[in-house]
Amino acid sequence: MFYRDERLALFIDGSNLYAAAKALGFDIDYKLLREEFMRRGKLLRAFYYTALLENDEYSPIRPLVDWLHYNGFSMVTKPAKEFTDSQGRRKVKGNMDIELTVDAMELAPRVDHIVLFSGDGDFRPLIESLQRQGVRVSVVSTIRSNPPMIADELRRQADNFIELDELKQVIGRPPREPREDTRERAETTD
């Protein structure tokens, strides 16, 4: 349900999209994702939201964040909060809902269609508000995982629900082949 001449913006809840893709057993190729939505409309902006651990010497998400930043995505990051729960387990918290909501509300007068990559039910009031402003909203997540990664009320509020599993062939990264040199070495040492 896209129109070629509509102004389009993507809002990607990074941790939520990662979890949904992982539950479906694939990795997202963000270059293909951006190209796919450029084909569907006039893509004005593609936002990616994630919290980063600032105190770690190496963050596994840093290379992705840098790549996205250099390849046409508007990166929105903030330091994650680290704490210890009541059972003594180390936990990391980095909710980006407010930042995403503010950006979507600010951009709403300049777009016709917003695509939200998240299944978080907390975004239902945002979608409702965007719709009152005349913006169509599509939500990308999955109901095919167990449990489903999208809140029912979010899916019902959206103008269009896009099943992430159906995008797998279009935006999925091809699975990596096992390295042959390791296998060959193991076979020759036996």
Structure, briefly:
The chain is α/β, with parallel strands linked by helices. It is 39% helix and 25% strand. It has helices at 14-24, 30-40, 62-70, 97-107, 124-132, 152-157, 164-171, 180-189; strands spanning 7-13, 42-52, 74-79, 81-84, 90-93, 113-117, 136-141, 160-163.
3D structure, described in words:
The chain is α/β, with parallel strands linked by helices and 190 residues long. The chain contains eight helices and eight strands, in the order E-H-H-E-H-E-E-E-H-E-H-E-H-E-H-H. The chain has helices at 14-24, 30-40, 62-70, 97-107, 124-132, 152-157, 164-171, 180-189, and strands at 7-13, 42-52, 74-79, 81-84, 90-93, 113-117, 136-141, 160-163. The strands form two sheets. The protein has a six-stranded parallel β-sheet, with helices on both faces. A two-stranded antiparallel ribbon has the order 4-5. The protein is globular, with a radius of gyration of 19 Å.
Element layout with pairings:
Elements: E1 7-13, H1 14-24, H2 30-40, E2 42-52, H3 62-70, E3 74-79, E4 81-84, E5 90-93, H4 97-107, E6 113-117, H5 124-132, E7 136-141, H6 152-157, E8 160-163, H7 164-171, H8 180-189
Parallel strand pairs: 1-2, 1-6, 2-3, 6-7, 7-8
Antiparallel strand pairs: 4-5
